[in-house]
Specification:
Layout: E1 2-4, H1 10-13, E2 26-27, E3 39-45, E4 51-58, E5 61-70, E6 73-75, E7 78-81, E8 88-93, E9 99-104, E10 118-125, E11 128-129, E12 133-134, E13 145-150, E14 156-160, E15 173-177, E16 179-180, E17 183-184, E18 188-189, E19 199-205, E20 211-217, E21 226-231, E22 242-243, E23 254-259, E24 265-270, E25 273-278
Antiparallel strand pairs: 1-6, 2-25, 3-4, 4-5, 5-6, 5-7, 8-9, 9-10, 10-11, 10-12, 13-14, 14-15, 15-18, 16-17, 19-20, 20-21, 21-22, 23-24, 24-25
Protein backbone atom coordinates (compact mmCIF):
# COMPACT_ATOMS: atom_id res chain seq x y z
CA UNK A 1 0.00 0.00 0.00
CA UNK A 2 1.23 3.52 -0.76
CA UNK A 3 -0.18 7.01 -0.62
CA UNK A 4 0.02 8.64 -4.04
CA UNK A 5 1.77 11.87 -4.90
CA UNK A 6 -0.26 14.15 -7.19
CA UNK A 7 2.57 16.38 -8.39
CA UNK A 8 5.15 14.63 -10.57
CA UNK A 9 7.92 17.22 -10.17
CA UNK A 10 10.77 15.52 -8.30
CA UNK A 11 11.40 18.51 -6.05
CA UNK A 12 7.85 18.41 -4.78
CA UNK A 13 8.07 14.69 -3.97
CA UNK A 14 10.70 14.95 -1.25
CA UNK A 15 9.86 15.23 2.45
CA UNK A 16 6.72 13.12 1.93
CA UNK A 17 5.26 15.76 -0.37
CA UNK A 18 4.32 17.90 2.63
CA UNK A 19 3.75 21.62 2.25
CA UNK A 20 6.88 23.40 3.50
CA UNK A 21 6.46 25.02 6.91
CA UNK A 22 7.01 28.67 7.80
CA UNK A 23 8.91 29.84 10.89
CA UNK A 24 5.93 28.66 12.93
CA UNK A 25 6.35 24.96 13.87
CA UNK A 26 3.85 22.48 12.45
CA UNK A 27 3.16 18.79 13.00
CA UNK A 28 5.00 16.81 10.32
CA UNK A 29 2.92 14.56 8.05
CA UNK A 30 -0.11 14.25 10.34
CA UNK A 31 -1.86 10.86 10.23
CA UNK A 32 0.97 9.49 8.06
CA UNK A 33 4.00 9.84 10.35
CA UNK A 34 2.66 11.76 13.35
CA UNK A 35 -0.33 9.84 14.62
CA UNK A 36 -2.63 10.78 17.48
CA UNK A 37 -2.36 7.52 19.41
CA UNK A 38 1.40 6.97 18.95
CA UNK A 39 4.57 8.57 20.27
CA UNK A 40 6.97 9.42 17.44
CA UNK A 41 10.48 10.75 17.94
CA UNK A 42 14.11 10.53 16.81
CA UNK A 43 13.75 11.18 13.07
CA UNK A 44 16.24 11.52 10.20
CA UNK A 45 15.95 12.05 6.44
CA UNK A 46 18.45 10.90 3.84
CA UNK A 47 20.51 13.61 2.10
CA UNK A 48 18.13 13.81 -0.84
CA UNK A 49 14.96 13.82 1.25
CA UNK A 50 13.61 10.59 -0.26
CA UNK A 51 14.09 8.23 2.72
CA UNK A 52 12.86 8.76 6.27
CA UNK A 53 13.65 6.86 9.46
CA UNK A 54 12.01 7.52 12.82
CA UNK A 55 11.36 5.98 16.21
CA UNK A 56 7.95 5.04 17.58
CA UNK A 57 7.10 4.05 21.14
CA UNK A 58 4.57 1.22 21.30
CA UNK A 59 3.31 0.49 24.83
CA UNK A 60 6.65 1.50 26.38
CA UNK A 61 8.85 -0.32 23.84
CA UNK A 62 10.40 1.47 20.89
CA UNK A 63 10.92 0.41 17.28
CA UNK A 64 12.33 2.02 14.13
CA UNK A 65 10.12 2.68 11.13
CA UNK A 66 10.98 3.61 7.57
CA UNK A 67 9.39 5.04 4.45
CA UNK A 68 10.84 5.98 1.08
CA UNK A 69 9.87 7.56 -2.19
CA UNK A 70 9.10 4.84 -4.74
CA UNK A 71 8.39 6.37 -8.13
CA UNK A 72 5.75 9.03 -7.54
CA UNK A 73 4.58 7.57 -4.23
CA UNK A 74 5.88 7.19 -0.70
CA UNK A 75 5.48 3.67 0.64
CA UNK A 76 3.39 3.20 3.74
CA UNK A 77 5.78 3.42 6.74
CA UNK A 78 6.97 0.00 7.87
CA UNK A 79 8.85 -1.28 10.90
CA UNK A 80 12.40 -2.27 9.99
CA UNK A 81 14.12 -2.77 13.38
CA UNK A 82 12.19 -4.29 16.27
CA UNK A 83 12.58 -6.98 18.93
CA UNK A 84 10.07 -8.60 21.24
CA UNK A 85 12.26 -7.91 24.29
CA UNK A 86 14.38 -4.84 23.52
CA UNK A 87 13.81 -1.31 22.31
CA UNK A 88 15.42 0.40 19.30
CA UNK A 89 15.21 4.13 18.67
CA UNK A 90 17.06 7.39 17.85
CA UNK A 91 18.00 6.43 14.26
CA UNK A 92 20.67 8.46 12.46
CA UNK A 93 22.50 7.89 9.19
CA UNK A 94 26.29 7.89 8.87
CA UNK A 95 27.71 10.62 6.56
CA UNK A 96 27.96 8.16 3.65
CA UNK A 97 24.53 6.74 4.54
CA UNK A 98 25.85 3.18 4.43
CA UNK A 99 25.22 2.73 8.14
CA UNK A 100 22.11 3.32 10.20
CA UNK A 101 22.97 4.07 13.81
CA UNK A 102 20.49 3.79 16.68
CA UNK A 103 20.33 2.94 20.37
CA UNK A 104 19.12 -0.18 22.14
CA UNK A 105 19.00 -1.77 25.57
CA UNK A 106 19.83 -5.12 23.99
CA UNK A 107 22.70 -6.93 25.78
CA UNK A 108 25.84 -7.73 23.80
CA UNK A 109 24.90 -11.41 23.78
CA UNK A 110 21.53 -10.62 22.22
CA UNK A 111 19.73 -12.68 24.86
CA UNK A 112 18.54 -12.18 28.42
CA UNK A 113 17.28 -9.12 30.23
CA UNK A 114 17.68 -5.65 28.78
CA UNK A 115 20.65 -3.58 29.97
CA UNK A 116 21.68 0.07 29.81
CA UNK A 117 21.37 1.78 26.45
CA UNK A 118 24.25 1.41 23.98
CA UNK A 119 24.82 2.81 20.51
CA UNK A 120 24.50 0.23 17.73
CA UNK A 121 24.43 0.26 13.95
CA UNK A 122 23.38 -1.77 10.93
CA UNK A 123 25.13 -1.79 7.56
CA UNK A 124 23.23 -1.34 4.31
CA UNK A 125 23.15 -4.43 2.10
CA UNK A 126 21.11 -5.55 -0.93
CA UNK A 127 18.48 -7.08 1.36
CA UNK A 128 18.13 -4.00 3.55
CA UNK A 129 20.06 -3.60 6.80
CA UNK A 130 22.33 -6.03 8.63
CA UNK A 131 21.80 -7.37 12.12
CA UNK A 132 22.74 -4.89 14.89
CA UNK A 133 26.43 -4.35 15.64
CA UNK A 134 27.65 -2.64 18.80
CA UNK A 135 29.56 0.61 18.22
CA UNK A 136 32.33 -0.53 20.55
CA UNK A 137 34.00 0.18 23.89
CA UNK A 138 35.33 3.60 22.95
CA UNK A 139 31.72 4.75 22.67
CA UNK A 140 29.70 2.49 24.96
CA UNK A 141 30.11 2.00 28.70
CA UNK A 142 28.21 0.34 31.53
CA UNK A 143 26.10 3.49 31.69
CA UNK A 144 23.67 4.86 29.11
CA UNK A 145 24.72 6.24 25.74
CA UNK A 146 22.16 7.57 23.32
CA UNK A 147 21.06 9.92 20.53
CA UNK A 148 23.67 10.04 17.77
CA UNK A 149 24.57 12.62 15.14
CA UNK A 150 27.58 13.12 12.88
CA UNK A 151 29.70 15.82 11.34
CA UNK A 152 30.55 15.42 7.67
CA UNK A 153 34.02 14.25 8.75
CA UNK A 154 32.49 11.40 10.73
CA UNK A 155 32.85 12.73 14.28
CA UNK A 156 30.08 11.26 16.40
CA UNK A 157 28.21 13.44 18.89
CA UNK A 158 26.18 11.64 21.54
CA UNK A 159 25.17 11.78 25.21
CA UNK A 160 26.10 9.64 28.18
CA UNK A 161 25.59 9.58 31.94
CA UNK A 162 28.85 7.72 32.51
CA UNK A 163 30.20 10.52 34.74
CA UNK A 164 27.01 10.99 36.76
CA UNK A 165 27.43 10.95 40.51
CA UNK A 166 25.83 8.11 42.42
CA UNK A 167 22.03 8.17 42.54
CA UNK A 168 21.86 10.92 39.89
CA UNK A 169 21.50 8.94 36.69
CA UNK A 170 19.72 11.87 35.05
CA UNK A 171 23.01 13.79 34.80
CA UNK A 172 23.76 13.28 31.11
CA UNK A 173 26.49 15.15 29.25
CA UNK A 174 27.33 15.55 25.56
CA UNK A 175 30.46 13.99 24.06
CA UNK A 176 32.24 13.95 20.71
CA UNK A 177 34.30 11.09 19.28
CA UNK A 178 36.45 11.53 16.19
CA UNK A 179 36.52 8.79 13.59
CA UNK A 180 40.04 7.92 12.44
CA UNK A 181 40.58 5.19 9.87
CA UNK A 182 37.12 3.84 10.55
CA UNK A 183 37.56 3.64 14.33
CA UNK A 184 35.93 5.88 16.90
CA UNK A 185 38.44 7.46 19.26
CA UNK A 186 38.13 8.09 22.99
CA UNK A 187 35.35 10.70 23.27
CA UNK A 188 35.83 14.15 24.75
CA UNK A 189 33.24 15.88 26.90
CA UNK A 190 32.03 19.17 25.47
CA UNK A 191 32.85 22.28 27.54
CA UNK A 192 30.81 24.06 30.21
CA UNK A 193 29.29 26.36 27.59
CA UNK A 194 27.19 23.30 26.74
CA UNK A 195 27.46 20.78 29.59
CA UNK A 196 26.36 21.59 33.14
CA UNK A 197 25.53 19.55 36.23
CA UNK A 198 22.00 19.23 34.84
CA UNK A 199 20.69 17.06 31.98
CA UNK A 200 22.10 17.59 28.48
CA UNK A 201 21.32 15.02 25.80
CA UNK A 202 19.68 14.46 22.40
CA UNK A 203 22.38 16.40 20.56
CA UNK A 204 22.29 17.27 16.87
CA UNK A 205 25.50 18.64 15.35
CA UNK A 206 25.59 20.53 12.06
CA UNK A 207 27.51 18.64 9.38
CA UNK A 208 30.15 21.43 9.32
CA UNK A 209 30.22 21.40 13.16
CA UNK A 210 29.16 25.07 13.24
CA UNK A 211 26.43 24.56 15.84
CA UNK A 212 24.76 22.03 18.11
CA UNK A 213 21.13 21.78 19.21
CA UNK A 214 20.32 19.64 22.23
CA UNK A 215 17.74 18.93 24.91
CA UNK A 216 18.43 20.16 28.44
CA UNK A 217 16.59 20.36 31.73
CA UNK A 218 17.50 23.59 33.51
CA UNK A 219 15.92 25.88 36.09
CA UNK A 220 15.16 28.60 33.53
CA UNK A 221 13.48 26.12 31.20
CA UNK A 222 9.89 26.37 30.04
CA UNK A 223 9.01 22.70 30.51
CA UNK A 224 10.20 19.19 31.32
CA UNK A 225 12.92 19.50 28.69
CA UNK A 226 13.81 22.37 26.36
CA UNK A 227 15.90 22.67 23.22
CA UNK A 228 19.07 24.76 23.44
CA UNK A 229 21.53 25.91 20.80
CA UNK A 230 25.24 26.76 20.81
CA UNK A 231 27.41 28.03 17.94
CA UNK A 232 31.10 27.35 17.37
CA UNK A 233 33.35 30.41 17.32
CA UNK A 234 36.20 30.94 14.87
CA UNK A 235 38.69 29.92 17.58
CA UNK A 236 36.94 26.55 18.07
CA UNK A 237 35.22 27.48 21.33
CA UNK A 238 31.46 27.26 21.79
CA UNK A 239 29.08 30.10 22.61
CA UNK A 240 27.14 29.77 25.86
CA UNK A 241 24.13 27.64 25.06
CA UNK A 242 20.88 29.53 24.68
CA UNK A 243 17.32 28.37 25.33
CA UNK A 244 15.48 28.43 22.00
CA UNK A 245 12.34 29.74 23.71
CA UNK A 246 8.93 30.02 22.14
CA UNK A 247 7.57 28.95 19.72
CA UNK A 248 9.98 25.96 19.77
CA UNK A 249 9.84 25.23 23.50
CA UNK A 250 6.65 24.77 25.49
CA UNK A 251 5.55 23.70 28.96
CA UNK A 252 5.95 20.11 27.75
CA UNK A 253 9.03 18.23 26.56
CA UNK A 254 10.94 19.15 23.40
CA UNK A 255 13.63 16.73 22.25
CA UNK A 256 15.16 14.87 19.27
CA UNK A 257 16.43 17.78 17.11
CA UNK A 258 17.46 17.24 13.49
CA UNK A 259 18.23 19.64 10.61
CA UNK A 260 18.02 18.33 7.05
CA UNK A 261 21.21 18.11 5.00
CA UNK A 262 20.02 20.85 2.64
CA UNK A 263 19.69 23.15 5.65
CA UNK A 264 16.04 23.92 4.90
CA UNK A 265 14.11 22.30 7.75
CA UNK A 266 14.47 21.82 11.47
CA UNK A 267 12.71 18.77 12.94
CA UNK A 268 12.11 17.93 16.59
CA UNK A 269 9.66 16.08 18.84
CA UNK A 270 7.03 17.80 20.96
CA UNK A 271 3.77 16.59 22.49
CA UNK A 272 4.60 13.06 21.32
CA UNK A 273 4.60 14.10 17.66
CA UNK A 274 7.29 15.11 15.18
CA UNK A 275 7.28 18.82 14.30
CA UNK A 276 9.10 20.74 11.60
CA UNK A 277 9.84 24.40 10.97
CA UNK A 278 11.78 26.50 8.47
CA UNK A 279 15.43 26.31 9.53
CA UNK A 280 15.76 30.07 8.96
CA UNK A 281 14.53 30.30 12.54
CA UNK A 282 17.98 29.19 13.73
CA UNK A 283 19.58 32.44 12.60
CA UNK A 284 17.78 34.44 15.26
CA UNK A 285 19.83 32.74 17.98
CA UNK A 286 23.27 33.77 16.71
Amino acid sequence: MAFTIKNNAQESLVYLNQKAPSTTPEIFAPDIISKQKEYEFGSVFSKDGTEFFYGVDINGKSEIRYTKLDGNSWITPKTIIVHENYGFNDPFLSPDENRLYYISNMPLSGVGDGKDYDIWYSTKNPEGWSKPKNAGKNINTNSNEYYISFTQQGTMYFSSNKEAVKDNNGDFDIYASKNEDGLFQKPSRLPEAINTKAYEADVFVASDESYVIFCATRKEGLGRGDLYISFKNDDGSWTKSKNMGEPINTSGHELCPFVTKDGKYFFYTSKKDIYWVDAKILEQYR
